[in-house]
UniProtKB/TrEMBL annotation:
This is Peptidase. Keywords: Coiled coil, Hydrolase, Signal. Residues 213-224 have a biased composition (Low complexity). Residues 1-25 form the signal peptide. The keyword DNA repair does not apply. Residues 203-212 have a biased composition (Basic and acidic residues). CDD domains: M23_peptidase. Residues 55-145 form a coiled coil. Its EC number is 3.4.24.75. GO terms for molecular function: metalloendopeptidase activity. Residues 300-408 form the M23ase beta-sheet core domain. InterPro entries: Cell_wall_metabolism_enzyme, Dup_hybrid_motif, M23ase_b-sheet_dom, PcsB_CC. Residues 125-196 form the Peptidoglycan hydrolase PcsB coiled-coil domain.
């Protein structure tokens, strides 16, 4: 017990000295590499010092994020019907959420690695201690043999009177009569002891680091939940204003030439194949918002499928693509992100088709950039993959927004000509009213509820 206490004291002293040394600036941009490196036992004082500096850096990141989240919560609490502020807060929330999720993933990975390393280190410490104990007995045994052969009591009495291994090593090092072989063994024993000291101190460091990571992880998981709840409140407030914002921005658009390369050509010639009914463009998921209103209020002119990013979208009928463009990142959506056409749609597709003798236009918004499988002027078959769902443009989370327009008996030629001249995804029905809904008796083109066809 005395030996173990002494070694622990020496280890603590060595660690304190190492940590007191000045820490040099390091590049921590590759955080994953540093997490992996410092989740392992260090074999030198320099390694311990470098990992302590990285832990300090991680703590600074953690503390800064806490302050940012606190400020965000204060801003949410004071929010009124200021859409500019809503959009800015939504962007801030997305950045905070990404940072928080990144730190949570780092901690989960680090905790797993550290726990694995501690188990391996415990075995190494046990083996090292057994090796040192064997050397201890070997040296003492040889000293006893020397006493028997030489009859000299001074050396063996001096050694055997040692209180512990460290005391014995100190006494042996000061004896001039020690042989060269003895000296070599003592040096090797000293090296083993130093390695053991470092391994034990690293075990303590890793155990303390695991506890710290677990405490922070629990706190951040709770923060992520609270951040999501506050964001949902923000979304609900924003959705009540969004229809007016969209209507104003989309009505002001007049630069058709800027999107011409993604539109069907007016010279397109072809035919529409009439099919007996629609198929659902998305399998699975749930309807997170229906037509004509969001759950919390606010005009909503289509149906939202809440599905994970990367879910396949298929053509609901045989048809022709009128518009297709994917300028936005797949998961870059946030409130107030007006990327895409129509404004805020992110990555979008508009197609025309014929079902049971009626011509329809169907539009898809907030798609992924990846997996975009169609282009303007392309014919598609019912059930053919056309895109993947995403979270692009003016979007509060992963989903696909779908709108359906009843074009009556409009021919394909007329539909292509009309769309090419106006680029109007809404087909004259506007963006700020339910008055142009087919169910209200409005003449074609009129808006249909996608739920009527897709469930």
């Amino acid at each position: 017990m005395k030996k173990r206490n002494l070694i622990s004291l020496l280890s603590a002293g060595a660690c304190a000295l190492a940590f007191a040394m000045p820490v040099h600036a390091e590049d921590y941009s590759n955080t994953d590499a540093w997490v992996a490196r410092c989740s392992q036992p260090q074999s030198s004082a320099d390694g311990v010092k470098a990992c302590q500096a990285f832990q300090d850096y991680q703590q600074q990141r953690y503390d800064q994020l806490q302050e940012d989240i606190k400020q965000y919560s204060k801003d949410i609490a004071s929010l009124e019907e200021d859409t500019d502020k809503m959009e800015q807060l939504a962007k801030t929330q997305k950045e905070l959420q990404e940072q928080l999720e990144g730190q949570i993933q780092e901690k989960e990975s680090a905790i797993q690695k550290i726990e694995e390393e501690i188990k391996a280190l415990e075995q190494k410490i046990q083996e090292k201690q057994e090796e040192i104990d064997a050397w201890d007995e070997q040296i003492k045994s040889r000293m006893q043999n020397e006493q028997s052969s030489t009859g000299t009591n001074m050396l063996i009495d001096l050694v055997m009177g040692s209180q512990d291994l460290n005391d014995m090593l100190r006494r042996l090092s000061g004896i001039e009569r020690i042989t060269e072989d003895d000296q070599h063994q003592i040096e090797q024993l000293n090296e083993l002891k130093e390695q053991l000291d470092l391994q034990k101190s690293e075990q303590v460091r890793l155990e303390e680091e695991t506890k710290s990571q677990q405490d922070q992880l629990k706190s951040q998981q709770q923060q992520a939940k609270e951040l999501e709840e506050s964001y949902n409140q923000l979304v609900e407030q924003y959705e009540q204003q969004m229809a007016q914002l969209q209507a104003a921005k989309r009505a002001a658009f007049n630069d058709i030439e800027s999107i011409r390369s993604n539109m069907i050509s007016v010279s397109y010639s072809g035919t529409l194949v009439n099919v007996a009914g629609f198929v659902s463009p998305i399998t699975g998921g749930r309807m997170s918002a229906g037509t004509w209103a969001y759950p919390g209020g606010g005009l909503h002119l289509g149906m939202d499928y809440a599905v994970p990013i990367g879910t396949q979208v298929v053509a609901p009928a045989d048809g022709v693509i009128l518009y297709a463009n994917n300028p936005a990142p797949s998961n870059g959506g946030y409130l107030g992100n007006w990327t895409g056409y129509p404004y805020g749609g992110g990555n979008t597709i508009e197609m025309v088709c014929m079902v049971n003798g009626t011509t329809y236009a169907v539009s898809f918004a907030h798609l992924s950039r990846e997996g975009f499988a169609v282009s303007a002027g392309q014919s598609v078959s019912q059930g053919q993959a056309i895109a993947l769902t995403g979270n692009s443009g003016n979007s509060s989370g992963p989903h696909c927004h779908i709108e359906v327009y009843n074009l009556g008996n409009m021919s394909l030629e007329e539909a292509v000509s009309r769309f090419s001249s106006s680029a109007d995804f809404a087909w004259g029905t506007g963006w700020n009213s339910t008055a142009t809904a087919c169910e209200n008796g409005y003449s074609t083109p009129c808006r249909e509820r996608p739920e009527k066809f897709f469930g």
